[in-house]
Amino acid sequence: MLSVAASFLRDVGFQLELTLQVLLRLGSAPRRRTLIAEQLFQSGLKVVHVVLLVGVFIGMIVALQTGIELSNFGQQDQIGTIVALSMCREMGPFITAVILAATVGSALAAEIGTMAVSEELHALEVMSIDRISYLVMPRVVGVAIMCPLLTVLCDTIGIVGGGLIADSQLNVGVALYYDSVIDALNDRGLPLELPKEVYTGLFKALIFGVILSIISCTAGLNATSGAMGVGNATRKAVRDSIIAIIISNYFLSWFFFNA
Amino acid sequence: MNRDVIIRYQGVCKSFGAKVVLKDLDLDVYRGEAFCIMGPSGCGKSVTIRHIIGLLKQDRGSVTVEGHDMSTISRGDLRKLRARMGYVFQEAALLNSLSAGENVALPLRETTELSDAEIVDKVNAKLALVKVPDVYHKMPSELSGGMKKRVGLARALITDPEIVLYDEPTAGLDPEISASINRLMRELAETLHVTSVIVTHHVGTVKTVADRVGLLDNGRLNFVSKPEEFIHSTEPRLVRFLGDKLD
Ligand SMILES: Nc1ncnc2c1ncn2[C@@H]1O[C@H](COP(=O)(O)OP(=O)(O)O)[C@@H](O)[C@H]1O
Ligand SMILES: [Mg+2]
Fold this sequence. Notes:
The complex is a heterodimer. Chain A is mainly α. Chain A has one domain (47-258). In chain A, 81% of the residues lie in helices and 0% in strands. Chain A has helices spanning 2-24, 33-43, 48-72, 79-117, 120-126, 131-169, 174-184, 196-221, 229-257. Chain A starts with a helix and ends with a helix. The relative contact order of chain A is 0.17. Chain B has a single domain, classed as Rossmann fold. In chain B, helix 3 crosses helix 4 (116-129) and helix 4 (116-129) crosses helix 5 (145-157). The radius of gyration of chain B is 18 Å and the shape is globular. The interface between A and B is medium-sized, with 15 and 19 residues. Bound molecules: adenosine-5'-diphosphate and magnesium ion. Adenosine-5'-diphosphate is lined by residues 16, 19, 21, 39, 41-47 of chain B.
């Protein structure tokens, strides 16, 4: 128990330091644009289809679950509002981050872990190439940019999914659904006339992207040699990322909507 | 020969957990010499040379390179020192995400302001030097073990280092290629006065390249001598070790 706590604290310390180191190296991002672009491709285009597939079903689930309750009170016209706001505020960023943790995060940990056990990290070290600037920063920046972008996609496709259910199962016409979505996503006080829910959701996605990429890179950098090393690193990356995303999600939601 | 000491181990001890690898190791390597380390597998040869470039730190004793104590050296000095060194990894340690040529180019791209064309020229010259001229655009996964090794050698040499550490540079290469790598190491020592520390299992390398050679055994370097004396020694331990390697 004590050793679990000690290794947890050691990991968190390492992760905080790594985050700081990455921030200090953001200045070299323009020079690393090729590596960042590659990372955007890896973490973005390769998982678009997963985000689309999961997003549409999440929207359908939200519509179905809340729609049944609402129709008991004759309020099913509200379904568009509920789907739009819960996708943007909560479901979109959360689901996107979990998908990224499971796909891109595990790949990052496996890739960097393999480099650790095959001495590629030592090779960088003897060439005096900074591994944080060369390996970690481009990956964190790539995932941190991609997570909000994919969240927009997830939000949108989720709302479409909700519309399918509204139309087919709840007898709310597409036009009515569309109107209530537009109404919910309209706030004249903010940029693009989008409501606070959209912006806080995107901010959350950005934070989740940083968290999952830092945790995954940490797991890879600390991979131990031996047949199990990379496997353990990958498993730890996904597990810790998802836990950290859920816990930080609570605190971010609390911060934005209860304060 | 110039007796200027460039690398000095004094009473170096290194353990991993309960496993003692180096025990009171002493060694002086002189500027411009080629020193070979032989020894059975797992005796700590790689561990020994890793101390020179700061990949490992001793538990006790000291390792000094060009007057810098490697356990207290500042980051800046370590960077400068490493810029003058090359390290040939036992398993090549090429970055799998880059082509062979870009692996060799990496130190130049990261630490110099050379133009792309200049870098490509230099890389091709080094690849030709290690006898793998046509691999620039091949990925490491497409290369055989021996080719990777030679690309790793080219990468270590690309910055024209003054000190080169070779970890089994000819292991797994066919005899003809081995001989050409041996000649290359000798040439670097003779024409460019490169200081070399070479871990090897090949008596051929010792014969062609070494100025001195020692046997790493029980955590220390024993029987340090000239290659001729080493190979023809009648010490029972050496005779036993060299037994099947001499033919
Ligand atoms: N980073 C490490 N952690 C634990 N043990 C190590 C490490 N590096 C080397 N060893 C151990 O030290 C011993 C010597 O290793 P090495 O120097 O690689 O042998 P060799 O003479 O074959 O090059 C081996 O038993 C190896 O298991
Ligand atoms: Mg070795």
